[in-house]
Amino acid sequence: MHSSDSDGTWPWDKILNRCLEMGLTAFSITDHDTIARRKDILEWAKVHKAMAIPGVELSTVESEESVHLLGYFLEGPLKNLEKMLSGAVEARNDRNKKILKKLQAMGYQVSFEDLASGAACEPVGRPHIARLLMEKGYVKTIREAFHRFLSRKGSAYYPKDDIRLEDAITLLHEAGAVSVVAHPGLLQRSPHDLEQSIRTWADWG
């Protein structure tokens, strides 16, 4: 699950409390490119005697395709992972500015200050730009913002450099995490190719 610390809408503690109310026995928050709430989640789990698992979701690339990678537990040394995440946040901010410049060139009144003030915290990304466009009245929905401007075929799209999937798996294992590929069914691969990919990724860890 994602909280308002990345592209979700609820704060992390509201999500965990809701999971508890629903009777779930194990649940995890895996925000994009941040582990800022790791200690908070572990403390919440201790207080509530619940299996709330800290995690993270990384944007990676493999065979020229974007692959999202989940890391659960994070029970090892975090220094190298935190260093990589810090660089990822800087890269996101740079990308955001370039997307905003494209939008400004098309006549849309959106600024980096607007974007930063409307986000709960880092990392800030395309979903936040989509919400800003909606708040400004330029689009009616988040989906429209992505379709017109922010998707790969959108008029304001700007690519970003992601860590290689194999390197990300190694990094997560070093941090004491269990790595899992997120929503593999959305990858643009045939069932046969996807099965072969998963076998290869499993060999990486």
Provide structural commentary:
The chain has 8 helices and 5 strands. The chain has helices at residues 12-21, 38-48, 79-105, 112-118, 126-135, 142-150, 165-174, 191-204, and strands at 26-29, 51-62, 65-72, 163-164, 178-181. Helix 5 crosses helix 6.
Set down the secondary structure blueprint.
Elements: H1 12-21, E1 26-29, H2 38-48, E2 51-62, E3 65-72, H3 79-105, H4 112-118, H5 126-135, H6 142-150, E4 163-164, H7 165-174, E5 178-181, H8 191-204
Parallel strand pairs: 1-2, 2-4
Antiparallel strand pairs: 2-3, 3-5
Helix pairs in contact: 5-6
Q: Strand content of the residues, in percent?
A: 5-15%
The percentage helix is: 40-55%
Number of helices: 8
Coarse structural class: alpha/beta
Q: How much is the radius of gyration in Å?
A: 18 Å
Please write the string of helix (H) and strand (E) elements: HEHEEHHHHEHEH
Q: Mind describing the biggest β-sheet?
A: 5 strands, mixed
User: Outline, from the CA principal axes?
Assistant: globular
Q: Which assembly state applies to the chains in this document?
A: single chain
Count of strand segments = 5
**Gap between N and C termini, in Å?**
23 Å
Question: What are the low-pLDDT stretches, counting only 5+ consecutive residues below 50?
Answer: none
- Overall pLDDT confidence: 94
Keywords:
205 residues; alpha/beta
Characterize this entry briefly.
The protein is an alpha/beta fold. The protein has helices at 12-21, 38-48, 79-105, 112-118, 126-135, 142-150, 165-174, 191-204, and strands at 26-29, 51-62, 65-72, 163-164, 178-181. Helices cover 48% and strands 15% of the residues.
